[in-house]
Amino acid sequence: MNRKSLSSRTGLATIAFATILAVATISSLPSLRIDLTEDNLYSLSNGTRNIVSNLQAPIELMFFYSESATEDIPQIRSYGTRVQELLREIVLASNGRLSFSVIDPQPFSEDEDLATEFGIQAVPVTQGGQAIYFGLVAAQEESAVVNPALGRAAETMALIRPDQEQFLEYEFMKLVSKVANPDLQVVGLLTELDIDGGFNPVMGQATQQWMIMDIIRQLYAVQRVDLTSNTIDEEIDILMIVHPQGLSQQMLYAIDQFVMRGGKTLVFLDPNADSMVSRTQQGNLIPAGMSSELPGLLESWGIDFPNDKVLTDNELALRVSMGQGQRPVAHLGMLGVQKNFLTQSDIITSRLEAINLSSSGVISHLEGSNTRFEPLMVSSNDAMLMDASLLEDITDPSVLFDEFVSSEQSFTIAARISGIVETAFPDGRPVEEVEDAEEEGDESTETEEVAEEESEIEHLSSSNGEVNILVFADTDMLSDRLWVQVGQFLGQRIPRPFSNNGDMVINALDNLSGGADLASIRSRGTYSRPFTRVIQLQRQADDRLRIEEAELLDRLAETEAALAELNQDENGELIGQMTPEIQSEVDRFNEEMLETRRSLRDVQYQLTEDIEQLGANLKLINTALIPVLLTLLVLLLSYMRTQRRKSART
């Protein structure tokens, strides 16, 4: 194309079109991402994209970060950069529904007052050092507030701790979800137990609710589910089922359809609920040793729960006191599940240290089930399933060791169930049986009205989306005795937890309250990556150092023995003076010790040299090898183009 053609109308139009196309392409680049990191650190989960794309009102993200105060703290600045990058990715994915700002609260400034207003306080990084702000606020944009007098909904993450890095995406989206849905979620409690308080007929007084319900009520609205009802209230967001026993077919069907319609479900089963009590008609208290059961439902969810077997574990057994003055003994049926048996990649069990259980059961995934089964808590390999009857009314835990034979396998105690599930009632709602004919006649009108209402509700044979069910094979873990001491202060009950049982229950409810999208957000890899080659070199050097040190200590022991022998006469008495033989041996030992220390320094020096050489090689690859490869690639392409032209001419 010559100059004249470029200046023509067609040429100018072509240039204008190309310019517009280039500008449009460049403008779209901020939303174009290619993530080449090992753990896809910069790729958002589908759950995050669904949440931000379905926001009904705009939300503002305010990152309170003392950027100027962290100039000399590279670790904090690196983490601050990581947080900002993730937040910007989330904002880009929202298509304008989220806005983002970074606020550096200076002392005595309006920004500092704003941070205080949202509950964010400066924290010292080092002892005696300057305090910094490092928190996040998600709030409705002021323009979106319908009634300014009520203020705008806001949620605060007062401190973004470095140990939360693996779950940053989840924590951020939990804040956004709470602002988008500020109303308290409703937890429907379905149980016959006195977990929520009751009446003790022996003492003739009311019993207080367990501390776990105190804590749940601080964060959620709790509604009891009527066991005699045929439906579950539509207002219930999360169904919490504790030790289900003898439920009617109508209630089982109601639970089934609640799950089919996407209702979140938290289930606590137990083969031997030894911390529970039930009342006889005479008012006497008897142990509620009966096992939990959800006939048909567990199978449809892909869960196998042998309700006549109790888990015993030799490695996790707690030591319990059998009476005053008696030494504690190990109880194979009472378990303290430590951190390494809790799934650290799931937000529910991450950062928890210990969970206490009593006569727990086990669950497993049914073969052929289409659901996903993700263990949250497991036993050790030194475990065995015993008949539940062996642990009922046991007075001496030591007798369990007589029956214990390790299965040499790990069992699942708690798991997350997700996926598409099929109904346990393929023929629809079961027919309600009426035992008394007269009662049938008296209540025929009422029954017809209920049936008419129920017929309007569509029966689902398959879930209308992926379900999210959390199942725990122990109910005793909820009781106060296994995780908390309750004190009194000014009429208020004060919990003093000694294990993380309560934390895990609240984590489970928080996870369910966010819906399937929030629950699906995976944990991320950590941003900082170890240099595996350097670690290998350090381990090799450590091994050599230990060998050298061991040899030095052996020679030292031999020399001390020789010196002691030289310093004694024939009768074993101390000579008490430095003989030429002793002086010669001491000089020899000093020379050996100096030589060994020189060898240790050489090992350390060689390690430093190896690491520096590795760094030099990496620098050479990054600065020279890549450009050389690119140059060779360009030359190869040029050569191939030249060859094609020659071929075309001939």
Question: What is the topology?
Answer:
Elements lengths: L2 H5 L1 H20 L17 H8 L5 E7 L8 H20 L4 E6 L6 H8 L5 E2 L6 E2 L1 E7 L13 E4 L10 H13 L5 E5 L7 E3 L4 E3 L3 H9 L1 E4 L13 E5 L6 H12 L3 E5 L8 E3 L5 E3 L9 H4 L2 E2 L4 E5 L3 E4 L8 E10 L15 E5 L5 E2 L6 E7 L4 E5 L12 H4 L8 E8 L17 H6 L1 H12 L11 E6 L11 E6 L2 E6 L3 H13 L1 H6 L11 H35 L13 H70 L1
Parallel strand pairs: 1-2, 7-10, 7-11, 11-12, 12-24
Antiparallel strand pairs: 1-5, 3-4, 5-6, 8-9, 13-14, 15-20, 16-22, 17-18, 18-19, 21-23, 23-24, 25-26
Helix pairs in contact: 15-16
Describe the structure.
- It is built from 16 helices and 26 strands.
- Helix 15 runs antiparallel to helix 16 (580-649).
- It is 38% helix and 19% strand.
- It is of the alpha+beta class and 650 residues long.
Descriptive tags:
650 residues, Glutaredoxin, Rossmann fold, 4 domains, seven-stranded mixed β-sheet, 26 strands, 38% helix, extended
